[in-house]
Specification:
Layout: E1 7-14, H1 22-38, E2 41-46, H2 59-67, E3 74-77, E4 80-81, H3 87-100, E5 105-110, H4 119-124, H5 132-147, E6 150-152, E7 158-160, E8 172-175, H6 179-188, E9 191-194, H7 203-217, E10 226-234, H8 238-251, H9 265-271, E11 274-277, H10 279-287, E12 297-301, H11 309-322, H12 327-331, H13 333-339
Parallel strand pairs: 1-2, 1-12, 2-3, 3-5, 4-5, 5-8, 8-9, 9-10, 10-11, 10-12
Antiparallel strand pairs: 6-7
Helix pairs in contact: 2-3, 3-5, 6-7, 10-11
Length: 340
Amino acid sequence: MTTTPIKPGLSLFEVPPRSANAADTFATLFENAQRIEQLGFETYWLAEGHFSDIGSPSALTLLAALTQRTTRLRLGTAVVPLALDNPLRIAETASLVNTIGDDRVELGIGKGNPGGFSTAAYHAFGLDEREREELYTETLARLRAAFVHTETVADGTEYGLYPPVGRLPSRIWQATGNISTARAIGAAGDGLQLHRFVAGGNTGAAQRPLVEAYLEGLASGADPRIGVSRSILPARDADEAIRLFRDHLARNPRALPGVAREGSVEDILHGFSILFGTPEQIAEGLLADPTVTASTDYLLSVPLDYDGEHYRESFVRIAEEIYPHLPVARHGKVGAVAAA
């Protein structure tokens, strides 16, 4: 099987929906990941959600299966809601998946999406969502401690985490929309992950202060890791993109939970910060986004059915017609941030 050279910073981000046949959905995700590996994408990021429209309650489990279906594609969680699990178990599982995947895991963690999206999950796990900040701070500290944790048994033998964590702790990414958290992420040397849209405003402009805070906290000489998530819908032209998205919404009425559906399909696309149209138009839109131009990794999602022909055709358009125009393709990862 022929694959193209790796395109640094190019990622596919999938948020699998709940479906009538979960096994078929997961098989489709695996096929998509294999396809983007052939096209040179660097990373495949998978969402995790609990008691919501996200049909992926354990991203690391699905990525474990993908370690056996891909060879070089990096595999990331976007993101594991840290407070909803035992940090020691997350560390063990992530280390296991990283080992069988030949050191390819990128561990994205977070608090769970705000605005009521994660309320049911916090309740189901017996937690108070109003304490999300405190819970996250505590569980993050426990996760870092877990990577170096040891236990001494009765005969004096000391056991650490197994399998060994290797370089995995240096590949933590934290998702946030909070300025002080972004600064702390930089100070910790972790990667920064940013959401696909900010409600009620210009997403790129609203998120740029997060990038600046992160870079302020980053130690001198440390390489930045800034992953920006964006939704794009490449097509022959804007009219075709609008038609494709209208049909997608008709088939999937809960495709955009929590997003206002008032107005035209075009209004919804703009309201959810989805760039649509020709690959050239999308590249122009991404280049006009001050957060995209200051990022090292592009987590691109396509808001269509994951098993559709046009969805998979979009992979080629992204790799061959959109990515070459982006800063990372021209300057490299660190160079793109410096240029911005």
